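agent> fetching stored inputs for the flavin mononucleotide docking request
agent> found them:
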Amino acid sequence: MADLATTYMGLTLKNPLIVASSSLTGNLEGVKQAAASGAGAVVLKSLFEEQIAAETANLSQHAADAGHTEAAEYLQGYGAALGPETYLQLIKDSVAAVDVPVIASLNCFSRDSWVDYARKIESAGAAALELNIGLLPTRSGQQGRAIEERYYQILHQVKSALKIPVALKIGPYFSSLAEVAATLGNDRAQAPTFTVGWCGPGETTPKIVWRKADALVLFNRFYQLDIDIEKMEIVAGNPLSSPAEITGALRWMALLHKRVASDLAATTGIHEGRDVIKQLLAGATVTQVCSTLMKNGFAQIGRILTDVETWMEQKGFTRIDQFRGRLSQANSSHPQDFERLQYIKLFVGLE
Ligand SMILES: Cc1cc2nc3c(=O)[nH]c(=O)nc-3n(C[C@H](O)[C@H](O)[C@H](O)COP(=O)(O)O)c2cc1C
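agent> prediction call returned; pasting tokens
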């Protein structure tokens, strides 16, 4: 019999399938259903800082005023912040109700809020905390390095304040993702430089002990924008992913496995058992699913797990660590498969 058990950020999971942070896990009923359907863990819907919620409300109002009702509904849905008290109660109730790890999720904006809310979340009993750093800089004038420093600073602040494990959910948009991931994902004798404040003049680099994130979650799927050519309007893109979207996170999973000491969680485009298997072969510690559950219901969890188990048995594996990362670049006898040559082959037709 295949044993799907794994550890993630020091937590023991009966399998590597986690229900991702979303409206599915924004209420106790959803958390109970996720656990009853066999998920290895749940990540609760993010607690958004009120400021972001207010901004979202303004944005959605703006969209509604402009007649973009779909966009307004989406924004309201995505940004509908549970108040902190309701959220903390959801953590307590979930922990009491289910026997799988309950990971809370936080999405903040201002510097001090991260730590304030993170401490409250820890006290409420969450097994771990996932930080969703949803920065999507769209204007010029912000240097790439300054944006990276915000990630370093948020991680440092929260890690220093908490005892529970901390995961960082990041997007793919960095000029050197490999370097940022290596910084966030490894302990270092010498901390990366960043300023204490984000904009205060004269603030200096602190002398700190640098501790890695317990996990990196690859990748955040940002709000999608589309255009209705009939109405000639900006509209919300599909909030749900397609299976084709797995490739971005899959590639980086394979590149980062063994290059970062943090655990790696895969999210975006994982819809079926074979997608979970691909991510594990690439090097994922665990996988997270959202869109496929929204499309197919919580029963999809059981189908995915059965498919993973069946595949393992067919291949003669009894444990995940017998094949995890087998197709990562670090374990590959053809590391060049991941590099520029493949790109050239594809476009120039070289043999
Ligand atoms: C309706 C909806 C709500 C979401 N809410 C959150 C959230 O509160 N926090 C978060 O970190 N991610 C949120 N996500 C993103 C998911 O956690 C996940 O990373 C993303 O949907 C990609 O995974 P998938 O391809 O399995 O859907 C949300 C996604 C959807 C579709």
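agent> quick read of the result: The pocket of flavin mononucleotide is lined by residues 20-23, 45-46, 77-78, 105, 132, 169, 221, 239-241, 267-270, 289-291 (CB under 6 Å).
agent> awaiting further instructions
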